[in-house]
Amino acid sequence: MISFTSAELYAWVSGFLWPLVRILGLMTAAPLLGHASVPARVKIGLGVMIALVVAPTVADLPEIDPLSFSGLLIVAQQFVIGLAIGFAMRIIFAGVEMAGEIASLGMGLSFASFFDPQSRGVTTVLSRFLSYLALLVFLALDGHLLLIAALVKSFTALPVSAAPLHADGFRQIAGWGGMVFSIGVQLSLPIVAAMLITNLALGILTRAAPQLNVFSVGFPITLAVGFAVLMITLPYLATPLVNLLHDGLDLAGKVAPALGGK
Question: Are residues 262 and 159 in contact, defined by beta-carbon separation less than 8 angstroms?
């Protein structure tokens, strides 16, 4: 007759539950995996499959009842860790979307906006276009697999334990949020510069011909110049996007050591 103690049962449950929660936390915030269009069943099923592979490799688990107060605190902690890793990668995509917002504002496309189910807010068409472009580059680099690999390495850098997370790690992750604005300005700089030159030319033209209606002429001109610059610079966006995505993967790998105080 097969028999086992309650301690062994708790060890089996916690050995699978805690890695699963960290994995599900990643899938909540990570690009592609955490997209709102992906059904919750698919996310949970994929998380369970990854946990079945990763859980046996996780060692040195605390001997705590997973249904106790301490065990539930560990569950919340693991979810926060996975969420932070996904958030670090999400910063890069937010910067790309910011570039689309800045370019749309200069081109006069800010009125062409719609509701985005991912961010639960209003976004522009150009912002969505650049975001999908970055997502395609992300898939071409196998970024989703590299992100999962960074998550697996996090169990070594930050083992599952009842020790509290370091506040300096959260402060460091919050500081990475400033990259959103720098990425947005850098990627949109060609269009912003072209719009500045175009608006200066229109201003000079208005002074030279006051009878010219700048509102009826300026909008199609700025729109055409913006799309022309976008068409010219689009083939050259691959290199900066690849570099930015590699930076995002590096940030995702630094989350666990930062939260662990290393």
Answer: no
Residues facing 123 on adjacent strands = 114
Count the neighbouring beta carbons within 10 Å of the beta carbon of residue 196: 11
Residue type, 206: T
Of 258, 76, 85, 249, nearest in space to 160 by CA = 76
Q: Rounded to 5 degrees, what are φ and ψ at 210? A: -60, -25
Q: Domain ranges for the chain, please list them.
A: 6-259
From CA 93, how far away is CA 130, in angstroms rounded?
9
Residue 175 three-state SS: helix
Contact 150, 30 (CB under 8 A): no
* pTM (predicted TM-score): 0.85
Question: CA of 148: how far to CAs of 24, 89, 204, 253, 258, in Å?
Answer: 11, 11, 54, 10, 18
DSSP string, 187-245: HHHHHHHHHHHHHHHHHHHHHH-TTS-HHHHHHHHHHHHHHHHHHHHGGGSHHHHHHHH
Q: Which amino acid is at 239?
A: T
pLDDT digits (tens, 9 = 90+) for 113-159: 666 666 666 778 888 889 889 999 999 988 888 998 988 888 888 88
Rounded-to-integer distance, Cα 85 and Cα 78, Å: 11
Say how far apart CA 46 and CA 27 lie, in whole Å: 9
pLDDT digits (tens, 9 = 90+) for 207-217: 777 776 766 77
Task: Output the DSSP codes for 83-129.
Answer: HHHHHHHHHHHHHHHHHHHHHHHHHT-TTSEEEETTTTEEEEHHHHH
